[in-house]
Design brief:
The structure is a single chain. The protein has one helix and seven strands. The relative contact order is 0.17.
Length: 78
């Protein structure tokens, strides 16, 4: 399920980030993935900073909640 995101670095600090409006397709998918997408889109506006642990991106919300992304490697072209 593709998401379209906009982000800006609002200050001179390299660890701060702010996401603008996010868009997603209206296509339905498996319930588990749709719920995950919904939860992600609800949390995204509260993201205020980020850091890396090894090569994994960690986004941090305004109340300290962390969302980690694991690097999986290159995307295979279909």
């Amino acid at each position: 399920m593709p998401l379209l995101l906009w982000a800006s670095l609002p200050t001179n600090r390299v660890d701060q980030i702010k996401f603008g409006p996010a868009g997603a397709t209206m296509m339905m998918g498996p319930e588990k993935e749709m719920e995950a997408e919904h939860n992600y889109l609800q949390i995204l506006p509260r993201i205020v900073s980020f850091h890396f642990v090894d090569s994994n991106l960690v986004l941090v919300t305004n109340n300290g909640q962390e969302i980690a992304f694991k690097e999986l490697g290159p995307v295979k072209q279909q």
